[in-house]
Amino acid sequence: MKELTIAMPKGRIFEEAVVMLKRAGYKLPPEFEDSRKLIIEVPEEKLRFILAKPMDVPTYVEHGVADLGIAGKDVMLEEERNVYELLDLQISHCYLAVAGLPNTVMNEVAPRIATKYPAVASSYFREQGEQVEIIKLNGSIEIAPIIGLTDRIVDIVSTGQTLRDNGLVEYERIVDITSRLIVNPVSYRIKHRRIQEMVDRLDEIISAGSIS
Amino acid sequence: MSELFMFEKPMGMRDTFPHLYRMKKEIRSLVEQEMTGWGYEFLETPTLEYNETVGEASAILEQQVFKLLDQQGRSLVLRPDMTAPIARVAASKLLKDRNPLRLAYSANVFRAQQREGGRPAEFEQMGVELIGDGTVSADAETIALLISSLLKAGLKDFTISIGHMEFVQELFLQIVGTEERAEQLRRYLYDKNYVGFRKHVESLPLSSIDKQRLLGLLSIRGNGESILDARSLIEGARGEKPLTELQELMGILNDYGYEEYINMDVSLVSHMSYYTGVVFEVYADRVGYSIGNGGRYNHLLHKFGAEVAATGFAFRLDYLIEALSPEAAKTETELILFSSERRSEAISLANELRTEGKSVISQDVTGISDVDRYTAQFHEVHWIVGRAGKSGGRE
């Protein structure tokens, strides 16, 4: 049996994904969740986990240093990596939205958008027939309209609480997001049996009912 | 823009150091021998071609092509693949002398990298084109030659996935009716987005049987029997044809004795837009990218004015080397150190050793600043220094 390497995003998705793998019958050690290690070996299952920044998961999988990965659809849209998207895990539900201060319109000459997702934001506005200027930020995107940096932001919304707390309103919903199981194209062929088995086991859990 | 340092190279451009050069040369000559053994003749084509001709005929994405202007202001490209240039030569010249035509190449191609490093923008491809033969025998011959070339190069753990463009095309048309809707489904397969494919299928106004037929496509894979599974998805003679071809192909590859390397995958589609029939990709253990691919391209030659069918493959030497990870094939070089008064003695010894087929460096001892460090790199050192007649090996 060939060993599988799985790139996992640190943070919220990680916990939900671990619950899912356990339900699918994978025996993961109890100290798994609060480990500070970046690589965790689970020899009894012939699995190896790499803990990565969510944005980096598709990169590891595309280059084949990880066979599989768990990545949000938001990251997949932004990164456009050459990987197979096999399964919608139906965890970490949220969506990408355009938000801004209430009752404002975008600057007509050069509307400015702050976001962590420059590729998604610019293609979305292009589809709306609008040319915008993107300002890339790495966090606390909600600040941008408040302090007058941009007219709008494009960001992930899960409950909308952060927007409300900062006095912002949602203008448009771009796309719904969930986490996906992705796989390297070569691993998908070479280690097909093991990967398909994992897909089937996870798929069973997903069909059995809601996880989140 | 910041000033360049003298050591910098354009993005994606790499040097080939001596040990890598040796490996490339060795593999190239093994594969060349094999391809020549199957009657394929090697040729070279120019590095630069017109964008309007070869550039547009090539299936490489526009943004990946290096472009420049000639003195007349015409747009040129650094060839992004070899199939289009060979189609040009074959259509305009070589096919008149021989048809079917068997050609082979080993050449550097250029593809610009935009996002990040980690991938070379110039790399060597080896491949063949079998032009003028539309039979399944020809498809099988190229795949068999690909397998035997990889085996000759020493590769063991690899799989070739084979699909058929017409099968996917016909299945989609049968179920969704229009080319436009079929294109949408095909795009999900190109993008390898199975989740999107499934969701899109669910959203279509189709009977549940038709939905199952579409979804079934994703799970059919494996050996000969999988063609039978595929048969249950499709109807009519136009659907039969590609599957009959695949079945025949599998039979011929069995005759070659290569069935263990084959994996039938009817959902395989290629990004290369010129493929029309059988398509295939090569996957090797330890390399995260497909190391080669190929297929039938029956319309490409029309663009260059010849109405003939063709098939071929190309694989990347750099990825193949990565998959082989061979120990650096070391050629043992011997060193002769001489002092100027005994130079002629050194020259005749060097000549003698070279005639035996050894590789020999003949070096004036006063030309080295650190003799101990230099000689430490050689196993065999001949000292021809000092008074005549007192030469000897180093202890």
Plain-language structure description:
The complex is a heterodimer of chains A (212) and B (395). By secondary structure, chain A is α/β, with parallel strands linked by helices. Chain A has eight helices and eleven strands. Chain A has helices spanning 12-23, 57-62, 73-79, 118-127, 143-146, 161-165, 185-190, 192-208, and strands spanning 4-9, 39-42, 47-52, 68-72, 84-88, 94-100, 112-115, 133-136, 152-157, 169-177, 179-183. In chain A, the strands form two sheets. Chain A has a six-stranded mixed beta sheet with strand order 2-3-1-4-11-5. Chain A has two domains: 4-92 and 178-208, D-Maltodextrin-Binding Protein, domain 2, CATH 3.40.190.10; 94-176, 3-Layer(aba) Sandwich (D-Maltodextrin-Binding Protein, domain 2). Chain A is 32% helix and 29% strand. The longest helix of chain A has 17 residues, at 192-208. Chain B is α/β, with parallel strands linked by helices and 395 residues long. Chain B folds into two domains: 3-327, BirA Bifunctional Protein, domain 2; 331-384, Rossmann fold (3-Layer(aba) Sandwich), CATH 3.40.50.12590. Chain B has helices at residues 18-37, 51-57, 83-92, 136-153, 165-176, 179-190, 194-203, 208-216, 225-231, 236-256, 300-303, 317-324, 343-355, 371-375; strands spanning 41-42, 48-50, 67-69, 75-78, 101-110, 122-131, 158-164, 262-264, 278-284, 292-296, 310-316, 333-338, 359-364, 381-384, 392-393. In chain B, strands 1-5-6-11-10-9-7-8 form an eight-stranded mixed beta sheet, sandwiched between helices. In chain B, helix 13 links the parallel strand 12 and strand 13. The radius of gyration of chain B is 27 Å and the shape is elongated. The N and C termini of chain B lie far apart (56 Å). Classes of the chains: A alpha/beta (212), B alpha/beta (395). At the A-B interface, strand 5 and helix 7 of A face helix 7 of B. Chain B: Pathway: Amino-acid biosynthesis; L-histidine biosynthesis; L-histidine from 5-phospho-alpha-D-ribose 1-diphosphate: step 1/9. Chain B: Required for the first step of histidine biosynthesis. May allow the feedback regulation of ATP phosphoribosyltransferase activity by histidine.
